């Protein structure tokens, strides 16, 4: 049949046709990186993408964010490295990874064959580290983008916390920006008094998108009460316990930057996805919840699509930013008042 | 490895605060080997975000059931004890790598400390089924913590040590090794880290102390099996089942590592939970 000739549908079928029409869940992160849907899996919770392959259909995810990758192999922190906390967990892995060259050698060829894009999370101790890792990833088939971890709270020794200083964050972002044309995301730390100037500096330095937020610094005490529980003393808190904080930061950042914001922090069900979208995020990363519910991310894709259909939406985009202040203008300077 | 529903068949408190629960889960009963584990999601969702790992204590293919053995130590395990027959549990498994028994080994020495019994219990069944002789050395703090002998196969020689001397040998279970290590072709252990470290030290010096021949090819014949491979483990005198705080249980989060002899952390959930003793760095302190 000729493709051009389209038969007019009888009117009584129009509604049915609408119900069957696919919902546009695609996310444009810039530089040609189009995600099929806004449900992503967070760095550190999904390994290098291969680990959960037996249990879930990872190809249906919007994107996979890899384990933090450094220039040289890292053995990570002493154990215990994880523990459950009220409504969440603490982790202190310490960036254990085989190093960027081994990551490329072991995984990139697989990633290149996948439908789901893999964004490599990159960590380092100096600007030169970041630039070198990203340069080695640049141009490797299978590497769809870079997410800079400039805020890992678990690497104390010598690790400069770029994420707590706007100038430092901007300089590492700019240096990496010069080293690659890959889509560049930068992950924000919640462990700061006001994240907005830092987010702005990173966006101005050339980041294509921001991820908000990394874990919150915390500790737990060993059952003996004689020492802290984690081998590294400090860990990062994640899970539903941090969702209100992550929501607040997404809400603040979305109002001051013009690049997409990807939300992360306690996503456990569709309601959390909708909350983060309403707060201004274009996509969300699931993380801690995957450990208990490996099928969650794929289920969220289906549920988000069903939600859009139920609301009669063609695209999920109209769900974004609905809770943001309607009046355009500079963010309130009074924002600091509610902070303890 | 699969996500599956397991229906509670039976639940009983075998010792004060220690429970054995049987679940109908044919995929696990048929597809598991001794040493593997399951990762269980509790139904208490009020702030519990992690699954709990349990050794597969026994597996019965005929009835399609598996059991787990645990102590009530928190809200997750307390929730489990409130399950009633017919209730379903969300289980991920079977996970991890099993014990590797040398096909030529006829005398197996199993060593368990406390809840470590759950780690080696199924191996006793498998070994008896395969016609091997099994001696099980068990250590506990006192008689009230000693695993009931009627829950073990009759064929198993069961030797008990208690810290306070209230039952069996007065002292640590590791003090019983000397009487059995010449008899044993292979040994398999699960329990507290200091116990496993003591056993690893004994195993490392065993050949020199006892002058025993090594099972397998003569030195230099053929290539050595790579450390950690099933073949290499099969030739190891001591295999241990390790415990560690666990996150994902599929190898993604790197939470549950123990230090390997080569200086690379090994994931308890993937490379383990069973390791040959020589694969691990027992002095690393983690």
Q: Provide the structure class of chain A.
A: alpha/beta
The CATH topology of chain A turns out to be TIM Barrel
CATH class of the largest domain in chain B: Alpha Beta
CATH architecture of chain A: Alpha-Beta Barrel
Assembly state: heterodimer
Number of strands of chain A: 14
Number of helices of chain A: 9
Bulk shape of chain A: globular
The SSE string of chain A, one letter per element, is HEEEEEEHEHEHEHEEEHEHEHH
The main sheet of chain A orders its strands as: 3-4-7-8-9-10-13-14
Question: Share of helix among residues of chain B?
Answer: 10-25%
Number of strands of chain B: 16
Rg of chain B computed from alpha carbons, rounded to a whole number of angstroms? 18 Å
- Terminal CA distance of chain A reads 68 Å
In the CATH hierarchy, what is the class of chain A? Alpha Beta
- Count structural domains of chain A: 1
Task: Give structural notes.
The complex is a heterodimer of chains A (340) and B (286). By secondary structure, chain A is an alpha/beta fold. Chain A contains nine helices and 14 strands. Chain A has helices at residues 14-20, 100-113, 127-137, 166-179, 196-204, 243-254, 270-278, 288-292, 296-310, and strands at 27-28, 34-35, 39-41, 63-65, 82-85, 88-91, 118-123, 145-149, 184-187, 209-212, 216-218, 235-238, 261-264, 283-286. The radius of gyration of chain A is 21 Å and the shape is globular. Chain A starts with 13 loop residues before the first helix and ends in a 30-residue tail after the last helix. Chain B has two domains: 2-95, Translation factors (Elongation Factor Tu (Ef-tu), domain 3, Beta Barrel); 107-230, Rossmann fold (3-Layer(aba) Sandwich). In chain B, the strands form three sheets. A seven-stranded antiparallel sheet of chain B has the order 4-3-7-1-2-6-5. In chain B, strands 11-10-9-8-12-13-16 form a seven-stranded mixed sheet, with helices on both faces. A two-stranded antiparallel sheet of chain B has the order 14-15. Chain B starts with a strand and ends in a 10-residue tail after the last strand. The mean pLDDT of chain B is 94. Classes of the chains: A alpha/beta (340), B alpha/beta (286).
């Amino acid at each position: 049949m000729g493709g051009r000739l389209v038969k007019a549908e009888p009117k009584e079928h129009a509604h049915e046709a609408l119900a069957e029409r696919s919902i546009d869940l695609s996310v444009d992160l810039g530089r040609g990186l189009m995600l099929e849907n806004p449900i992503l899996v967070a760095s550190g919770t999904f390994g290098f993408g291969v680990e959960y392959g037996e249990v879930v259909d990872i190809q249906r995810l919007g994107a996979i964010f890899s384990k933090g990758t450094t220039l040289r192999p890292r053995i990570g922190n002493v154990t215990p490295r994880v523990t459950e906390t009220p409504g969440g967990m603490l982790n202190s892995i310490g960036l254990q990874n085989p190093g960027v060259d081994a990551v490329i050698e072991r995984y990139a060829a697989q990633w290149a064959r996948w439908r789901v894009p893999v964004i490599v999370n990159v960590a380092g101790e100096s600007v030169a580290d970041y630039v070198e890792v990203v340069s080695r990833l640049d141009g490797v088939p299978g590497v769809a983008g870079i997410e800079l971890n400039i805020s890992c709270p678990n690497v104390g020794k010598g690790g400069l916390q770029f994420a707590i200083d706007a100038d430092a964050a901007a300089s590492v972002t700019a240096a990496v920006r010069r080293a690659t044309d890959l889509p560049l995301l930068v992950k924000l730390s919640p462990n700061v008094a006001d994240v907005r100037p830092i987010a702005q500096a990173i966006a101005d330095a050339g980041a294509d998108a921001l991820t908000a937020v990394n874990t919150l610094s915390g500790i737990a005490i060993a059952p003996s009460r004689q020492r802290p529980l984690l081998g590294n003393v400090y860990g990062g808190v994640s899970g539903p316990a941090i969702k209100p904080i992550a929501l607040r930061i997404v809400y603040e950042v979305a109002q001051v930057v013009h690049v997409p914001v990807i939300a992360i922090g306690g996503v456990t069900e569709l309601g959390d996805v909708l909350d983060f979208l309403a707060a201004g995020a274009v996509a969300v990363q699931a993380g801690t919840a995957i450990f208990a519910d490996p099928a969650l991310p794929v289920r969220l894709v289906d549920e988000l699509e069903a939600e859009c259909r139920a609301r009669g939406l063609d695209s999920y985009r109209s769900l974004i930013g609905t809770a943001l202040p309607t009046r355009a203008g500079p963010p309130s300077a009074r924002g600091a008042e509610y902070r303890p | 490895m699969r996500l599956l529903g397991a229906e509670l068949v039976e639940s009983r408190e075998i010792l004060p605060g220690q429970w054995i629960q049987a679940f109908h889960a044919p995929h696990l009963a048929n597809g598991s080997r001794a040493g593997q584990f399951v990762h269980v999601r509790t139904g208490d969702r009020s702030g519990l975000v992690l699954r709990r790992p349990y050794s597969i204590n026994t597996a019965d293919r005929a009835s399609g059931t598996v059991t787990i053995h645990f102590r009530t130590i928190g809200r997750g395990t307390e929730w489990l004890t409130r399950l009633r027959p017919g209730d379903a549990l969300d289980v991920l498994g079977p996970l991890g790598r099993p014990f590797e028994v040398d096909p030529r080994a006829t005398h197996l020495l199993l060593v368990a400390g406390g809840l470590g019994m759950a780690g080696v219990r199924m191996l006793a069944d498998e070994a008896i089924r395969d016609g091997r002789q099994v001696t099980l050395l068990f250590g506990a703090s006192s008689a009230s913590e000693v695993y009931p002998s009627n829950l073990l196969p009759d064929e198993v020689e069961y030797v008990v040590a208690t810290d306070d001397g209230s039952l069996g040998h007065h002292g640590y279970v590791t003090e019983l090794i000397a009487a059995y290590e010449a008899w044993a072709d292979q040994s398999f252990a699960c329990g507290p880290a200091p116990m496993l470290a003591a056993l690893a030290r004994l195993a490392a010096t065993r050949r020199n102390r006892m002058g025993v021949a090594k099972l397998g090819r003569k030195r230099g014949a053929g290539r050595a099996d790579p450390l950690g491979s099933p073949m290499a483990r099969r030739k190891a005198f001591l295999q241990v089942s390790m415990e560690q705080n666990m996150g994902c249980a599929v190898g993604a989060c790197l939470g549950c590592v123990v230090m390997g002899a080569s200086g690379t952390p090994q994931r308890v959930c993937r490379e383990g939970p069973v390791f040959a003793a020589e694969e691990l760095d027992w002095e690393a302190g983690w």
